Amino acid sequence: MKKYIIILNLFLWAVHFNGNAQNQVFTEELKKNVKQRVEKGINTGIVIGVVTANGTSFYSCGVKSLETKEPVDEYSIFEIGSITKTFTGILLANEVIKGELSLNTPLQNLLPEGIKAPCRNGNSIKLFHLANHSSSLPRTPNNFAITEPENKYANLTVQQIYEFINTYELSYDIGTKFNYSNLGMGLLGNVLADKNNTSYEELMLENIANPLGMDNTRISLTPEMRKNLAKGHRIGVEVKNWDLPGMAGAGAIRSTAVDMLKYLAANMGIVKSKLYPAMQLSHKYSGSSIGDMTLGLGWVTMTVEGKEILWHNGGTGGYMSFMGFTKDGERGVVVLSNSAFMPDDIGIHLLSPKAKLRNPKPSIANELNKLIENEGIDSAIRVYTELKKNNAYDYNFSREELNKLGYRYLLKGKMREALAIFKINLEANPKDWNVYDSYAEALLKNNEKDKAVYYYKKSVELNPQNTNGLEELRKLGVKIEQKEKQD
């Protein structure tokens, strides 16, 4: 094993400083686009890595922190968020390859004594259902208290995950629909760790990171990793790192561009490893799909400009990331950012150059946040109305940006500000179910139960598969007949 790791590190080291290769990979158009994102405050820092059979190339722009101004590079540590799910899928596939488990192993077989997996119409959740988001479990559990708003999952334990599923009633048949579930993938990571009498982090290190020489891929930051940490940012403000002790397998890993290219090289077969059969199994279609995209075990496959791409992205409180590779193994890409703006288009463009780069606009949320902090919510709403009327093309007014801002104040317990932001978002996006759901959540937290019920109902009318809304209504004593989502 040591010999293998040395060969892998030499491979990456030898090609890292190939300047001509970098110039060919990163066009002036792309570098200009990335620089503009940083200059406009859309992204604080961006690091891009590309791997092919000929080697690796990196391009970095921006800083680790708006305070220190230290530049990011390929050794900077980022939270990779839901890219972690591909690691969890490979860990499951590895158990299957070893003959320890089957993809059809019932979840119940791996649960602690006294915990019962939810069933529906006589069918049980299998392990592959957890890995491809078809388990019928909700996105997250709701049986824990958020005591640290910027690190909201820090208090969620593995035991609470088990307690949640022990009493949860599935709202639709298992295996019939795609419903993205951090809970499901976190649960999968937990039961795999329990089976091996270890923690999720140790299981990942033993089976993936250590064999591949990924020395800076961990959940718990080493002193060296902490020194190289790129601080997360949201709405132009530095935020805390996330901890996910109860759902580590859903999104807890931190890593660098250098390490992620080692991971991609192994998945692409450029560097052979004992894990390759498990990796190949994790890439295969597993029976779940969303639109034109199909799901493997953690991996998503889509076709862009005639090219099949396997990918996943990730997002935590202050980070966004993308990782993918072409199915033919010609190229792999990772894009890491320490700000809450998705860099997917950069990664997809590098994998399929005909795919266009976006020219994103500065977020209206950043501007409103400054105004709220300095002049108050009334001034911010007044400026928002003026800007939307007179400068509609100068800012990103999307519901996602306003939702980020609303949740910033909701989690800080500043209800007047949160409700005002969610309300203008709802007025601007009256057909978006998620906006109603967010507004209802804020109303409920403000002890306005009747209004919360009204807006949860509106959310579920627009999206009958809104499991969060259905669950909240159930807890509020309101029964809703579930229907198919309207187009």
From TrEMBL:
Signal peptide start and end residues: 1-21
Q: Which InterPro entries match?
A: AmpC-like, Beta-lactam-related, Beta-lactam/transpept-like, TPR-like_helical_dom_sf, TPR_rpt
Provide the GO MF annotations for this entry.
hydrolase activity
* Keyword flag ATP-binding: no
Residue windows of the TPR repeats: 399-432, 433-466
Work out whether the entry's keyword set contains Signal.
Answer: yes
What domain of life is recorded for the organism? Answer: Bacteria
Pfam family of this protein, just one?
Beta-lactamase
Query: Which part of the chain is the Beta-lactamase-related domain?
Result: 31-342
What keywords were assigned to this record? Answer: Hydrolase, Signal, TPR repeat
Parts forming coiled coils: none
Which PANTHER family does the entry mention?
Answer: BETA-LACTAMASE-RELATED, D-ALANYL-D-ALANINE-CARBOXYPEPTIDASE/ENDOPEPTIDASE AMPH
Q: What is this protein called?
A: Serine hydrolase
Q: Organism source for this protein?
A: Marinifilum caeruleilacunae
